[in-house]
Specification:
Length: about 300
């Protein structure tokens, strides 16, 4: 069991999760009439998606050394993808490749936002070898891991716990206890999205996880604060929104990633969980409207986060 009081400050953080190439389009009917052929769809912009990318880029922006592990295809997109990550000073040597196209996600913005994933089933569930994972840990010299829950990452969670690495597990989708159980049992902190599963359901899950496993759990509500359990025993504590003044440049996109980046960056500096949650909320409230993976540095004293 990790003694959280003895964790040392670290400038390097491990990030694990699925990534994808994301195209944002405005015409749902046109997209579907062309049978999901993204090459012929008028797009607003292309970007790179997935919490692993978002958290990595935000951590790199505040000066953290980031080591990312994900699966990409062996196509040209993966080369551009890795080049973009390296440009942000993110270490990509942990990236694995499979035979096929890098997964794609179509974000349709008209009449309500929705996402359609393409090529996602092609991502292998091949579990990285223990030797490969342990060497990745050693090269990073980090004791902090932020991860989502792809099937291929279960042994990474287990090995991280075995090697006394502090784990923040981000459950991005609807909660499935049977599927997520292996990740939860290895975690120090679990993140839920109350925006996705609803506040009441999130609270029920938080109480259940704490009662069964004594897991500290945080349920985020975008910029509207968050709930946390495990700080003061089984009590669920509400953390209100930090900035009461509406930010005209705020974008709801990436708020969850920003919260996660703020949280684990503070934990890696041995801040208290109160301080880590507060930083996560400040980061979530300062995402730029024009750039998915950038914080509005003008609103932050960035020297406080290095």
């Amino acid at each position: 069991m990790i003694n959280e009081n003895k964790l040392k400050q670290s400038n390097s953080i491990l990030v694990v999760g699925d990534c994808f190439y994301e195209s944002t389009v405005v015409s749902s009917k046109l997209f579907e009439s062309l049978k999901y052929d993204i090459d012929f769809i008028p797009k607003i912009y292309d970007s790179y998606g997935g919490a692993a990318v978002g958290v990595s880029m935000l951590l790199a922006q505040i000066g953290k050394t980031v080591y990312i592990k994900t699966y990409l295809g062996n196509d040209k997109t993966s080369l551009v993808f890795k080049k973009k990550l390296r440009k942000k000073r993110i270490n990509t040597k942990g990236i694995m490749h499979f035979d096929g196209q890098t997964p794609r996600c179509i974000n349709i913005t008209c009449k309500g936002s929705r996402k359609i994933f393409l090529d996602q089933t092609k991502v292998p569930n091949n579990i990285p070898s223990e030797l490969l994972v342990i060497n990745w840990f050693k090269k990073s010299n980090s004791k902090y891991l932020y991860m989502t829950c792809p099937p291929w990452a279960k042994n990474i969670a287990y090995l991280a716990k075995k090697n006394d690495i502090f784990i923040v597990t981000d459950i991005q989708a609807d909660f499935d206890e049977k599927y997520h159980n292996d990740f939860i049992l290895c975690s120090n902190i679990v993140l839920l999205s109350a925006n996705i599963i609803g506040i009441n359901k999130a609270k029920n899950i938080m109480e259940k996880l704490y009662r069964k496993y004594k897991i500290k759990t945080i349920a985020t509500i975008g910029i509207n604060g968050c709930y946390a359990i495990g700080i003061n025993g089984h009590e669920i504590i509400y953390f209100p929104q930090q900035n009461k003044v509406k930010n005209p440049n705020y974008s709801g996109l990436g708020a969850g990633d920003a919260f996660g980046a703020g949280l684990i960056s503070a934990i890696s500096e041995n801040k208290s969980l109160y301080q880590a949650i507060n930083r996560g909320q400040i980061f979530a409230e300062n995402m730029l409207k024009t750039d998915y993976y950038r914080l509005n540095i003008k609103n932050l004293n960035i020297n406080n986060y290095r």
